[in-house]
Amino acid sequence: MNFYRIIGSLINLNRPDHYFHWSFVSISLANLIIIAIMLVIFGLAIILPFPKAKLFRERSETLPTNPDLDPLENQNKKMLTYRLRHFLIRTIPIKNLIPDEQPMYVASWIYVFGVATLAALFVVIVSGMILAIGGVNWWHESSVGHFVNSLHLWGVELFMAFMVIHLWGKFWMSAWRGKRALTWMTGVAAFAVSVLEAFTGYLSQQNFDSQWISTNGKDAINATGLGSFFNLMNFGQMITWHIILIPLALVFIVALHIILVRVRGVTHPVIKGKHNKESKIYLKKLESSKWKGPTRKYDIIKEGTIATIIVILGYRSP
Q: What is the CATH number of domain 70-313?
């Protein structure tokens, strides 16, 4: 197999793919190469230095406010609205939701893929909404519809790739440390829901590919007993799952994940070495507390905008 056939199997999606077989494993050459590229990107994100990773300033403790001067304290504390407002203020302060600085250890490429995943998700949602409005004939027959459909496809490819690299990084960082187990679980749940969302997307294409997948997949779904209400051959049901039901669940889980990251903070670096019982207890308390070390500037709006532009420029026509 020469170099041009390998490149052709990646770019030209309208030709039979080449498969690699080993024992019970059967994977296409295109997917195998993409996984290899993802592993290389994952390694480079850990090794390559981060630009402009300079010390910004030491975090200083904020002075406590005087409760006598706080007008909110003069309100009726029995009101549900009052309690909810104060709960949100204590739990999710605006400074945490829209941060302008991050701990110094965040100056690494591996931390970028969280924002890149969100940027890709934004492109996927916007392009998907346009496709839903245009309809089947539009995205198959119109040149503009074909462009939006291709943008949606490659947005999904980048979304899944960025998410997997993000999960790899957080796994090896033990991101569940410091009372962040729920943060980790919501990230894994978002990945699982995304797989189901991508599957229903394949079934909603209204082409031979979607017909082949739905015909072969219905027996597996029927064997689980779910075929009575999850009918892969029903286009109306599959597109409803794809554009309404599953996206609502995915956006909710992603939003919860982001809120937990903002509330709990970014996982502290792993302190290597042998630790006794006392030091392990101390490290456990340290990991669950707020970071008080050096910080760096962090423009989340700028970073998100750049990531979105990169995702859009990553478009390729299938």
A: 1.20.810.10
